[in-house]
Predict the structure of Beta-galactosidase.
Amino acid sequence: MHWPKGVDGLSYGGDYNPEQWPEETWDDDVMLMREAGVNLVSVGVFSWARLEPRPGEYDFGWLDTVLGKLHAGGIGVNLATPTASPPPWFTLAHPDALNTRPDGVRQVHGSRDTYDVCAPAYREASRAIAATLAERYADHPALAMWHVHNEYGSATYSAHAEQAFRLWLQAKYETIDALNDAWWGSFWSQHYSEWEQILAPRATQYLANPAHELDFKRFTSDAMLEHYKEQRDLLRAANPDVPITTNFVFGQWVPVDPWKWASEVDLVAFDSYPSAPDERAEQQSALHADLSRSWAGGGDWLLMEQAAASLHSHDGAIAKAPGRMARHSMIHISRGSKGAMFFQWRAGRGGAEQWHSALLPHAGKHTRMFREVAEFGNTLPGIAHTVADPVETDVAILWSPDSWWATAGKHLPAPVDYLENVAQIHRVLRDRGVIADFVAPEGDLSKYTTVIAPTTYVLSQAGAENLRWFTAGGGRLVASYLTGAVDENCQVWLDGYLGGMTDLFGIRVTEHLPQPAGEPRALWNFGAAERFCELVELRGAQCVTQYASGDVIENQPAVTVNPFGEGEAWYVSCKLVDEAWDRLFEELKLSGPGRPGLDVVDRGPWRFIINHTEKEEQVGNVIVPAGSWAVDKKR
Ligand code: GAL
């Protein structure tokens, strides 16, 4: 039960908000959806105030009508529980259920996501609205899937959170002394003598305790997961045949550990909003897709949201060129998504997202955008049979939420951009035509021949043992700087860092030597390092290349390799530039059929080719026009 019930082939559609529009538009919507090849829409995502205008007083009339019309039109419904936006009456009645920022300011309603997952009143109200929806719609013929909440991620530092955090800590550490040990409590007089003294890591005078902050992120992920599971269980009890999901959002600020969550959803769903203004947007899309597939254990997942017409660059939206929406969708589909969904179906007339692009623009169906949307949507049924086989690869990159969160700390030896380091490996591999999976440091590595650990800063004993076992058994491990610098409590791995695995790597890292920004350090015959370098002492490993210059590091090992058991462990003691990683992957003979600007993904007998370049490209016998894509039999 992993797939929207009753929706054949690939899903195509998006968030549909009929409650924002007069009833006269609804028939038009269904007609145009059919014209565009839409077969699944997400309904009700933020509609709590319209479903329950006053406490306990429901208005389901509009939803009944909409679901009826969609069903008659053959369009499946991904029905949301509306808990990401509690109504104004609720927050006025329960101000303590609003979320509190780290600076202690309690937010007010007026936007969305103003909720506190730890507030009892919010939990109760969430269960009540989910149960009411379940009772009414669980057997509705239009219901294809449940969409719980929206993009969990809004953390809260409230008194409720604090209380729940203490209980979470008690369950984890059992004694206050164990917590003090784990958090290195003697530093700056942070030793606690009672659980009640522990606060949420709100704004404090200077640097906060990194172990405290990391535990709070983990706690928040678990607290949100509890909120999700309460709703899921109610929905499941009402009809066990309807799959249940929630849409993951991506960002360092998001306190959700997808490895823990993935097993609790029937289908991993992901919202992909690339932010790069250039061709890195394709790179980001591929990264999102490979992460999502990996969270889904290599199986199907669903791209739940993307923007039809623009990229979400940090400097504002940038229009997607014709065909780019389809290419982005195909990046996801080729890498495991069973469809392409969008935010949103009809562009909003008012409200904060009135300028967000949509499948159906403000100007209506006689637009370039809608024509493109309909053309792509009507192509999908013809390729649905090509996605039956899994995406296969024997290369994995470690994805460590703990490392992402912990490297946000301002106290590191030098700033570390964990996501960029992961993305860099993924980018260089993609340009070499290699598809990579992601795996948790403690995850199952058995199907991989090469595992790359980019700056896996937090490495637990279990993670370290996993990597040791992988390498001893014949795997090729490649780790980059700061990997295994600290353990799961953010305490330094003594005597050489590396998660205590100095024997595995055949080296000790003895010093961190950050270099001035903008002054790259050349490596002999190997490109260069930027910003972060480490001093490495050989203890049996072979030196692959050395630093050509730099105080202390000149002529010291920069990249090393050590045979271990049946395998070998490579270590990169610096932040390499892309060309240097490319050089290293050349050495490791990692390459595939794709090339820069050209995604090639093989699945069973089928080959997906996506040409992002401005010229025609040929792969085997297949010619793909500029800016276009093809699926063909592998020959
Ligand atoms: C998503 C969200 C949608 C919409 C979209 C705009 O993060 O789930 O509701 O706000 O962003 O890009």
